[in-house]
Amino acid sequence: MADERGSTKFQIDLRRHLRETGVERNLTRLICEISEASKYIINSIRTGDLGVAGTSNLYGEKQLALDVLADRILEKRMKHSGVVASVISEEQEQIIEFNPGHSDCYSVAYDPLDGSSLVDVNLAIGTIISICKGNALLGRGRDQVAAMYILYGPRTTLMYSTGNGVHEFAMNQLMEYTLVQENVTIDGNSDIYSPGGQRNQYSEGTERFVRTLEEQGCKLRYSGGFVPDINQILIKGRGIFMYPHLKNRPQGKLRMLYELNPMAYLVEQAGGAASDGKMRILDILPQEIDACSPVFIGSKKEVALAQEFLAAEGY
Ligand code: F6P
Ligand code: MN
Q: With 136 labelled, which of 79, 100, 217, 267 sits at a CA distance of 20 to 30 A?
């Protein structure tokens, strides 16, 4: 976006960017509400309790007090925004309806604190958000109207897309998100790869694919946090992340609604690709709210190569 003062792009805040790029009013409101919620989440990460909450989520994972807190912060914000019909969270067991049937509203799926098991070791974590129009939480990922994430690393950054490119913001000293980069793109060949899951559980096809990447000189860059690992690919403009189907976990680990759909949307918007090894992630119809899928996501060329290896060597 051209700025009238030329050199002041760092002063373009999130609300102004949304407004000036023509994003619909309620969607602008919603994205700004989420960005506000993230400030409270940061505060909880910095100062909060590292202990467990004494509860488990739908996946049998122990919930940290921080997971529960981040979930509450977002839910409350969504409820009071007036523009959200329903939400579903990785930390909840069912869809929560606020405003059923309201046609100007949005529905939001979120992972409030992805990678929260990395908090005690002080590695980067994030919040992932998927936004659909109306009440459409169980549709295909291609029907999302926006997706975003907030990355809590040494700096706090926010990446969003409303279907018109991917834009990066960073939090400044006043805790405002200001524009860093418009139209983030993935266009290079991968020289880094992030392989999730135990390697000895990979299928023959995945194993041959990874060996080929290594022979091509790719370096391993895996942080164990989905948000920083995807952010790395978006900011470097190249790379591939995978959490494939494993022999002991055929559906992989990552969740369609809260993790894969929003990240696939962002990566495609940046010119990359996301596949389950056979088909485009955004074309998969999730069968239930906790559906998982294998994923190969990042540079188009390497995602296509993964599909070729899996087709030729055995899925
Ligand atoms: O929520 C899932 C998650 O924590 C992601 O952030 C990350 O990519 C993945 O799990 C890491 O899984 P693993 O611990 O098996 O490498
Ligand atoms: Mn997660």
A: 267
Q: For ligand 1, atom 3, which residue shows the shortest CA distance?
A: 115
Domain ranges across the chain = 9-181, 192-313
Model pLDDT, residue 42: 95
> What are 121-170's pLDDT values in tens digits?
999 999 999 999 998 889 999 999 999 999 999 999 999 999 999 999 99
80-123 pLDDT per residue, tens: 999 999 999 999 999 999 976 677 899 999 999 999 889 999 99
* Number of alpha carbons in the 13 Å side-chain half-sphere of residue 48: 21
Cα–Cα distance measured from residue 131 to residue 34, given in angstroms and rounded to the nearest whole number: 11
DSSP string, 128-147: EEEEEESS-TTS-GGGEEEE
State residue 58's pLDDT score.
82
For residue 274, how far is its CA from the centre of ligand 1 (angstroms)? 17
Distances, alpha carbon 246 to alpha carbons 124, 192, 201, 203, 293, in Å = 25, 21, 5, 7, 11
CATH of domain 9-181: 3.30.540.10
Question: What is the pLDDT averaged over residues 50-62?
Answer: 79
Ligand 2 centroid from CA 205, angstroms:
26
User: What number does CATH give the domain 192-313?
Assistant: 3.40.190.80
115 Cβ closer than 6 Å to some ligand 1 atom? yes
What is the 116 CA–ligand 1 centroid distance (Å)? Answer: 9
Return the best residue to mutate from 114, 198, 231, 290 for the ligand 1 pocket (most ligand atoms within 8 A of CB): 114
d(CA 92, CA 86): 13
Ligand 1 proximity of 225 Cβ (cutoff 6 Å): yes
Residue 151 near residue 228, CB atoms below 8 Å? yes
